[in-house]
Fold each of these.
Amino acid sequence: MAAASAEWVGVPCRSVRWPARAFALTRAMCALRHGWVLEQGDDRIRERHNDGKPLRMSFVEGPISQRLKLIHGSGAVAFGVKDLGFSFFLLIFYNQVLGMDAQLVSLALLIALLVDAVVDPIIGNLSDRTYTRWGRRLPWLYIAPIPLALVWVLLWSPPGGEAPSFAGLVGIAIAVRVLLSACEVPSVSLVPEITQDYDERTTLFRYRFLSGWLGGILMMVLAYTVFMPGSDGLLTQDGYMPFGIFGAALIALSVIGSAAGQHRIVAHWPERRPPPFTMSGAFSEIVEAFSERSFLIFAAGALAAYVTQGMTFSILNYLNLFVWQLGENDLILFPVTLFLSVVLMFLIVGPMHRKWGKARTAALAAIGSMAIGLTPYGLLLAGFWPEPGTTPSTLGYFAFLLFGNTLGVVMMISATSMIAEIVEAFEERTDRRAEAAFYSGNWLIQKCATGAGIFLTGQIIGLAGLPTDSDPGAVSSQVITNIVLYFGGATFILAFFAAYWLGSFPIGRDEHEARLARLASRRAAHDAEPLDPISNAARADPDAHSMTP
C-alpha cells in the first residue's frame, strides 16, 4: 500500500468502474480486503490512507512561502494586460484608427461584456466540476492561455488591416473575454484552496492586485513610449500589432508560468468526485450562492464599488484633459503615479486588516478614497487651487491621486478577499465547496456594474454639455463645473453605499477561525467513523440488497 498521507486520494491504478447492480457484493468484498472506501454517489473506489489525520482542508498549512506568493500573483498579469487594452486603447483604435463608428464599437464591447457575464457562472461551475490528477484548476490554466493569446493578437491586427464587421468585432471581443475568464476564474479560485488563513488570503490577493496593476501599467508605459509614441502615435496603425503581440506573449507566459510554478503544490486529485455538469445546475448554484446571506451583503457593497471603479476609469481621460489639462509628459507620469499607489497599497493593506479586519478596512478605505479623491475638485470649484495645466496644479493633483487611489485599491482588495471566507460559510451550510461559483458570481457583479459605471460616465458628459472635438483649455467654465459636480455627486453617494454594506459584512476573523475549527471537527469525525465496506457499498448502490441484475 502507498505511504500514509493526510488526505483521501483517488488511486488511478485501483480505480475500477463497476456495473451498478451486478457486482455490489464483489465491490464490498474488495473494499473489505483492501481497506478501500466507497463514497455515496461515486462509482470510483477510493483508497483511504488511515493514519488518523483529518482530510486535507488546504494545500498549505502555516505561512505561505514568498516564492508561492509571487508565482501565484503573477498569473493576474494577464488580467491587467486585458483590462488596460479594453479600457484605454480599444475604443480609440477601432474608432479613430480603423474608422468604425464609436457608438457601434461601444455597443459591441457592451454586448461582449454582457455575454461574458452570463458565461462566467458556466466556467466557474465547470472548473468546480473538473476532476483530474492535476486537480480542478490547472488544466484550465494550461490550456486556455494559448487560444487567448492568439485572439488577443487578432484583436489588434484584424485581417487585411481593415475594420471588421460589427458582428466580427462582437465575436472576437467575446472570445477574448470568455477565454480570459477561463484563466482568471480558476486562478483566483485557488486562493481559498491554497490556504485557510485569514491574513494569508489577503496576502495572496495583495500579490494578485500588484501583479495585475503592474501588467497593465507596463503595457501603458510601453504603448506611450515604444509602440505608439508621440502625439500622433495613438492614431497610427503600425504600433498596434506589436502592442498586441507583446501583450499576447505576456498573457500566455504569466498564466502558464504561474500554473507551472504552483503545480507541485496544487496538482492533486480533488477530494470528492463532483456531480456531472448541467446547465441548470450551473445557474442554480449561482442562485444558491446569491442566497448566502454573507454573499448578498458583500454583493451590495461590491456593486457600488465596481460602479465607482467603472465610472472613474472611463471618465479619467476627460478629467485629465479637460479639467486638469495634463500635457504629454504629464500623461506619461500618470501611470507611474498609479503604480506607486498600488505599491503603497501593498504595504498598508496587511496591517490594516490585522488591526481592523477586512470589513471595517473596506468601509474606511471607501470613505477615505472618496474624501481624498474629491478634495482637489472641491478646492478647484472654491477657487483655492492653482491654475490647471501649471506645474503646481499637476503635482498637487498627482499627490491626491496617489493617496486616493491607494485607498480605493485597498477597498477593492478587502472586498475581493471577503469571498474566500464565504466559501467556508457555504461549505458549513451545504457540505460542499464552490469556490469558482462565488468568484464567477463576483465577476458577474463586477462586469455588469462596470458597464453601468461606463454608462454613467456617458450620462455625466452628456448632461454637462461637453461638445465633441473640444480642445483642452477652450471648454467653458460652466461645463467644467458641471462635470465636476456630477462626477463628485455620484462618487459621494456610491462611496457611502459601498462603505455601509462592505462594513456590514458579517464574517470577521474570530468567526472565520471558529468556523474552520467546526469544519475540522466535522471532517475528523467523518475520518474517525468505523469502516463498514458492506454498508458503504449499499449506500453507493441502492439496489445492492437485490441479487438480481
Note: The radius of gyration is 26 Å.
Amino acid sequence: MTADPSSADQTRAPAANTGAPAGWMVAAAWLLTFVLAYVFWGRLLGIAIEGVDFTYVSKLPLLPPALALLTAIAMTVRWTGAPRRTGGESIGEEGQGPSATPSGRRRFLVSASASAAGIVGAGAAAFSRNTGWATVTGPSIQPEVPNKADAPRAEWGGARVERYRRLGRTDFMVSDISLGSSKLPTTREDAVRLARGAIERGVNYIDTAPDYSNAGSELALGEAMKGQRDKIFLATKFCTPKGHIPTGSSVATYMEVVEESLKRLQTDYVDLVHIHSCDSLARLMDPNVHEAFDRLREQGKARFLGVSTHTPGLEAIASQAMESDRFDVMMLAYHHGAWPNQVALIDRAAKQDVAVVAMKTLKGARHQGLLEQRAEADSYTQAAFKWVLGNPNVACLVISFREWSNLDEYLYASGKRVDESDIALLQKYDGLNAGRHCYQHCGACLPSCPEQLPIDDILRHRMYFEDYQDEKEAMRLYSMLERQADRCLGCSAPCTGACPHGIPIQHRLLSTHHLLTPA
C-alpha cells in the first residue's frame, strides 16, 4: 500500500510552537517596558542626578520596569524561536504546510540582539526624562551674573547693622539684615572671610543648611564663628548634604543629620533647626521629626524648632505650624506685592509670639528689569529690604551674601525706614514686570490647569534663567519636573485670565518650555 505523501510531509515537519507569543504581543510588552522605564526609572535617575540623598529614597519603583523588562525578554526569546512561515503557508497549525525553525545559533543571535536593543531602549526612555542634563554643563552655559550693583555708592562703604529686633518667643535680639549662606564664595578662604566680615559688622543671625554647597556652607561657617559662637543665633535644617529628609524617616535619622551638622559647624548646639522647604503637612507634622527634636532639645543640641516654606501651600503650612504650637520660628517668603493674605498670617504669628523671618525678599532680584533706570536699579535691594522691615512683625530678613560688596550694599538698609521714593521704585518695578513675573506663592492659577502643571515652578525656573541668569540651575530644575509645559500644546487654555497679576499663562509656559529645553 502506497503511503500518502502529505502524511509523510506532516510527519517530517517540526511541531509548531503553539505557546509562542504573537509579534504584536512582544511589541506591546516592550512598549509597556519603555513607558514604565520612563515613569519609574526616569524619576529615580532624575533624583540621583539632582543630588537628593538616595539613601532615604524608596527603591520599590525599580521593580515594575524590571519585571516588565524580564517579561519582554522572555517573550522575545520564545517569539524568535518559534517556527516561521515558508512559501506563504501559515505556521503553527497541523496540516497547514511546511514551516522552518531557526537554528540554535541563529535563534540565539536574533533573541540576544532584540533583547539588547530593548534594554538600550529602556535605558534611553529613562534618560529621555532627564534630557535637560545633556547640555547644562556645556560650554554654552554662561556664568552667573553677580547679584550686586554695578557701581557701589561711596556712602555705602563700611555699612553695618543699625538695628536689632526680638525673635519672638526665643527672646533673642537679632540683626534686621541677616546672613543667608546658600551662595557663599566657592573657595573656603573667601567664604570664611565674608562670613567673618558680616559678623564683625554686627550680623548675628546666620542661616545655613547641610545641602548648601554640599555642606560647604556649614564647614565655612564653622571656621568663621570660632571665638564668636556665643554672639550668634545659628539656624540649620533637617537634611543631609545631598538633600532633605523625607517623611517617615526614623527618629535616629533625624537626630543623626543634626549631629553631623554640629560637627561641621564646630559647635555643641544650634539655636534653631528648620523643617526645610516644607511643602506638605505630612512632612511638617511627621511624628518622628518632632520626637527627634524633643530629644535633641533635651540633650542641649537644639534649642528651637522652625519651618521654612516658599511654596503655593505656604499659607496652609504656616497655619498648621501655628495651630500645632510646636514651632518657634517660621521662615517665609515675603516681599512687596506678595499675596494679600500674608500680612494677616504674619500678624497672627505675632499674636502667638512665633517669630517670622523673611526670605525671597528681592522677588527675583531682577536688576536688569530696571535697566532703563540704572541708578534706581542700584538701590532696588535697599528699597525691597526697607519695605519688608517696614512690617514690625517681621523679626529679620535673610539674604544670600555672595561677595564682599554685598556687605556695603545690603547692610546700608539696616535700621532705615521705607519712604515714598522706595514705594514708587517698587511699584515701578512691578509695573515693568507686569504679566511676566510669577508671584509663585499665591497659586491662584493652579486649579485652572487640566494637566495639573506646576505653573508656579515652571515660571520660577524661567526667572532663574532670565533674571538670575543662572541658566544651568534653571534648566536642571525644569528637566526634573514630571509635567512640563509642552502639555500646553493643543490645550484650550482654561487658565486664561486665572492669574490675578495678568500673566498670559499658556503663552508664557510654552515660551518657557522652548527656553529651558535643550535643542
Note: Confidence is low (pLDDT under 50) at residues 5-17, 86-98, 132-147, 367-374.
